[in-house]
Structure prediction request, 666 residues.
Amino acid sequence: MNRIARFVFVDILKNSFVIIYAVILFLLSSSVLALEDNSSKGVLSMLNIILLIVPLVSIIFSTIYIYNSAEFVELLLSQPVKRTVIWRSLFYGLSLALSLAFVLGAGVSLILFVGDLLGLFLFFIGILLTLIFTSFALLCAVWAKDKAKGIGLSILVWLFFSLFYDGLLVFGMFQFSEYPLEKLMMVFTLLNPIDLSRILILLQLDVSALLGYTSAVFKEFLGSQLGIIISFVALVLWFVIPYFYSLYKFNRKDL
Amino acid sequence: MKLGILVLLLIPFGVRLNAITLTVGTDAQYKSIKSALQACNDNDTVVVGEGIYKEGNLIISKKIVFIGQPGAILDGESQYEILSIKSSNVVVKGFKLQNSGFSTLNDPGAIKVYDAHNVVVENNILENNFFGIYIQYGQNCVIKNNQIHSTGTEEQKIGNGIHCWKSDSLLIIGNEVSGHRDGIYFEFVSNSLVWRNKSKHNVRYGLHFMFSNSDSYIANQFIANGAGVAVMFSKGVRMYNNYFKENWGEAAYGILLKEISDSEILANTFDQNTAALYLEGASRMIIEKNSFVKNGWALKMQASCIDNKVSLNNFFSNTFDVSTNGTVVLNSFDQNYWDKYEGYDLNKDGVGDIPFHPLSLFCVLSERNPTMMFIFRSFIVDLLDKSEKLLPSITPMNFVDEKPMMKSYSL
Prediction:
């Protein structure tokens, strides 16, 4: 990690918001996991937290942070530092700080109360979602010059992946209910990191028996070792691609 | 004269006075069971001592009491039906029967009763047999306190634990069955009682009955069977105080009811089943005072069900309380406790003031279009369900409990 990344990282940790985020995550996760007598139910509540709160906080906080450090970035640009390095440092600093908050907040109770493979799954998916939505934030911030527009865009991205996308799918499912859609749904899962995470975890839980025929198709693919590897690779691509695209944009941006 | 009267008095008891006990064992009167069975007469007792007896198929064709002392093992060498009972009034007690033959042609069992009445099979241990206890054309038979275990994994290669066919007035009490295809299987069996049995880890159903009318199933436990309990094409069935637990899997049910009518399901507990109670073509059923806890679906009531009364039940922590596949509802829900009920009770009479609609929108949609399960547990599902609760538009309006209870029943 270079000095700029370290500076960003420390700067974010000084910001009380990340500490509050970690504390809230800790309170939520430990209460949900410790109070539920049925651990599978606790995991389901935990799943909701990870799928909703982690992306929301990651994307909004990162977007705002990048806009706020616009002057700092400009200052750095006047020095003999490459644009790539600056952008990379921002991404490293942000994702590291937010991941650390997640690990300390939710990760500890996940390892303590859930433990096995399932806890590990939730743990890594939480970190991956943090990275994914941080890189989305970079993309939003580089896209819109105006701060209000950028934050609006980032909220829209979050809403799209956690709500609208599923809404559109429901619409599509009813329009094309005559057709066998299960295989196609597999493709659509890979196209939304939140859905992909949700289904990956559901398949590890008992409730997957409720999914019926759909689950059989999913299990065949996502339940297998290859499927799990592919879906984790997909999740990795989900933060690599937006990040590099934002880098490409940043390098060409007229600041 | 006096002697004559005495003789006359003794005549009715004559046979009984002649009854003797034959013992079988290495240093007993008879060396083999077959010779003892040959030598005995009606009303005799055959006592078999300790040892492993590999004598092929043993046929009991006289009304005897057949007792095994501790350690008496009858082995079928994976070839024979072990014990064939072809006489009425036979008692079989205390044996261990193991390794019966396998054949799908004549279904050999460890103990098979052919066309007999008043047969008692009690306190036996059955291990690794194709069929356990098989009764055909039996009447007034008692199967009591037997331990029936096998280690089947494939449906085709394993028979049923207790299999009853074309029988009447059977008592099946206190048996434990595991590892068979169906734990207890009834076909054309009427007026029978199944009481305090434990049926668990069977490959297919814990209890399976078809065309069996007027039977009672009381205080049995059905745990972790491949597909739960199936009840088909019967009427006048009474199921009380049974315990259905952990029948979990893609095709598992607590109870699957198909084409069944005029029956009662009272005071049962359904714990952690995929679908606790699945009803198809069920009519005039009374479903009362049951506890549905932590099931995937508590009730799956297909539109082909009519005139069923679901009342005074507890619904706790089920993923879905009720689901159905149609819009017509001809069943009634009354005074149940639903843990998902969010209403209030102003007059404090214990009954919620606003009706409860147990059917969630997502349940209706996913029943119509199974692909919908794709968005199970997503944010949009919660939103859709909440909005449907406020303004019902898609869920059937009459699928409703007008008097939901504020507090759960202590059942």
